[in-house]
Amino acid sequence: MREVSVRIVHFTSDLAKAGGIDRGALFDAFPSFARPSGAGVSWDDFAQVWERLEVACGGPEGFARVARLAMTTAVYAELRVFASIFVSPLSLLRFMMFRYLQTSFRNVDAEEIERSSDGRIRWREQVHAGYRPCPAYHRATRTFASLVPLHLELPPAEVTMRMTDERTAHFEGYFPPPLRRRRRDAASSVLQLVAAQLEDAYALIGDRALSKPHARTTAGGAASEWPERLGLSKRQRDVFALVAEGRANKEIATALGCSERNVEFHVGRILRAARVTSRAELLVKVLGGA
How far from the centroid of its chain's Cα atoms is residue 202's Cα? Predict the structure, then answer.
């Protein structure tokens, strides 16, 4: 079974590249990583790869340095969209941790425990019983959570972690307040207003997912049902799957062996079928299960 989305394979590859680590040597021993399918990779392979990656980086502190380098040098379509919408790093964290990542890891739950108005949050992360424990994954969560504010041009967050058992980690973090800039033109003010409204929409999606029974286990399935719901053609389904992974048109064209113009055409048809006007809206609709 493939419990980890294929988008995480690309991200892991970028981390290895940032750390100067031989990706072939890192992946080749694990069948699902060496030959990732559209369904993703197995959790057991993923856990072992990340344990090796942490060691190859020189331990948790070395991994944190590599992660920061990767997050500031590589451009991820999804993060670019999210960072352009959110104003508050705490809201960005909540959406990514409690909604977005649940579509990438089908056997890991993340649950918000407490949130305060001063930018503090406590949450818990747990690997389902029956799957290989992976403390390196939890340590990576702490690292990436602390880096969330960087996407909004803010200093890193202060995040601490404690393990209560081999598969459960508790986190506590303080996230800096939004950076409020004075806008010199009306257009910027309008964009800021729209961003705030979309931020509320993303937060609502996260809240609804947390309160909906079985939301975490069905999120991936709900996303996979969209091509049929929209009546997409075979080629449009292929394009849709890669758009949902956050791939850019150039990457999609390379993966499918077609031109970027052809990809643009199919993306346009998908957006019209979904009755949205942008990829950001499509992500909201698909990830929110609307």
Answer: 14
DSSP letters, 137-200, are HHHHHHHHHHHGGGGGT-PPPEEEEEEEETTEEEEEEE-PPP-----SSHHHHHHHHHHHHHHH
Range(s) for CATH 1.10.10.10 in the chain? 225-288
**Is residue 67 predicted with pLDDT exceeding 60?**
yes
Query: What is the C-alpha separation between 226 and 241, in angstroms, rounded?
Result: 10
What is the CATH code of the structural domain delimited by 225-288?
1.10.10.10
Edge-to-edge order in the sheet of strand 120-127? 108-115, 120-127, 168-174, 158-165
| pTM, rounded to two decimals | 0.64
What H or E segment, with its residue span, contains residue 252?
helix 249-256
Predicted confidence (pLDDT) at residue 127 exceeds the cutoff of 70: yes
Tally of residues, the chain = 290
